User: Which sequence fits this backbone?
């Protein structure tokens, strides 16, 4: 079984979104507790460093970062989106959390290419897949997965990266960033209609975007069938040199932000299938990022399934 290196940091727990907000520190606490309870795997927990702006600038311009950080309040909370989605918030501790969340993926990328480990998980918040090149969106400020992909391409001889997104919400940010880039495949399975409203099958970029919108109430069996036929088949054909996962666990039947019916063990099946493709084309190299997932019990169970799948 493969060992898994986990990058996280206590600063990611200090990001506050106020009472009643679904993207709360308890999500990460639940995941870390679950990871610590896994006894059958070799898991190496490391502190995520602060990302350098020069690395983030591979995706997001400095002016965008400056605008975000200039809005961070000395106290309280401030929303940075316009209505009706004014739920992406900054608190006094936001900057370090944002930079360490991105730094986790950069360190994982370095370790992936310079060391012997093949599987990484970034247990971080805030999440990233809704963040566009110059637009804060959906609880996300920096697109952590996109920065990791660009970092790999810029600093190593990696020409093709696949980003697989099984969060129940479409990763509009990741799609926007790579929409015209044949070197990055983006594949997403997500409930539609649902926030953010993007992700139709007709949105294909330059032949590198593969969306699989699914209906409310989709069963576990049907979800896995569509995931294989619409996403994984295309990833396999693409033959990526590294696979990045935007791992959201909010398609779970317990999650209240959507209405898809995955069981916790389905995340093992999906992850195992991704690993098989990684073994064929990517030397087994995978970096997984926490995205959504808002029910604490579902998170605790699903992360164990995800880790068992990563370790295959």
Assistant:
């Amino acid at each position: 079984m493969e060992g898994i290196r986990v990058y996280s940091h206590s600063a990611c727990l200090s990001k506050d979104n106020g009472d009643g907000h679904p993207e709360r520190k308890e999500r990460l606490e639940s995941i870390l507790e679950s990871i610590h309870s896994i006894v059958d795997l070799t898991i190496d927990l490391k502190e995520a460093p602060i990302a350098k702006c020069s690395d983030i600038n591979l995706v997001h311009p400095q002016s965008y970062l400056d605008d975000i950080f200039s809005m961070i309040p000395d106290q309280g909370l401030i929303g940075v989106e316009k209505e009706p989605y004014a739920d992406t918030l900054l608190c006094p501790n936001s900057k370090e959390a944002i930079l360490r969340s991105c730094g986790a993926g950069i360190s994982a990328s370095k370790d992936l290419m310079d060391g012997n480990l093949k599987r990484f998980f970034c247990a971080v918040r805030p999440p990233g897949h809704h963040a566009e090149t110059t637009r804060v969106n959906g609880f996300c400020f920096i697109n952590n997965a996109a920065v990791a992909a660009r970092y790999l391409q810029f600093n190593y001889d990696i020409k093709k990266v696949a980003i697989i997104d099984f969060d129940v919400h479409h990763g509009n940010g990741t799609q926007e960033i790579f929409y015209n880039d044949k070197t990055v495949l983006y594949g997403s399975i997500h409930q539609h209609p649902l926030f953010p409203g993007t992700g139709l099958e007709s949105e294909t970029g330059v032949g590198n975007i593969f969306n699989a919108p699914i209906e409310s109430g989709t069963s576990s069996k049907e979800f896995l069938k569509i995931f294989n036929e619409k996403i994984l088949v295309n990833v396999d054909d693409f033959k990526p040199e590294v696979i990045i996962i935007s791992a959201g666990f909010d398609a779970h039947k317990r999650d209240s932000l959507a209405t898809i019916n995955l069981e916790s063990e389905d995340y093992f099946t999906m992850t195992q299938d991704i690993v098989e493709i990684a073994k064929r084309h990517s030397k087994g190299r995978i970096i997984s990022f926490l995205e959504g997932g808002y029910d604490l019990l579902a998170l605790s169970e699903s992360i164990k399934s995800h880790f068992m799948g990563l370790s295959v």
Q: What stands out?
A: Residues 4-310 form a domain with the Arginase; Chain A fold (CATH 3.40.800.20). Strands lie at 4-8, 43-47, 78-79, 89-90, 119-122, 161-165, 184-191, 209-214, 242-247, 286-290. The chain has a mean pLDDT of 97. The radius of gyration is 17 Å.
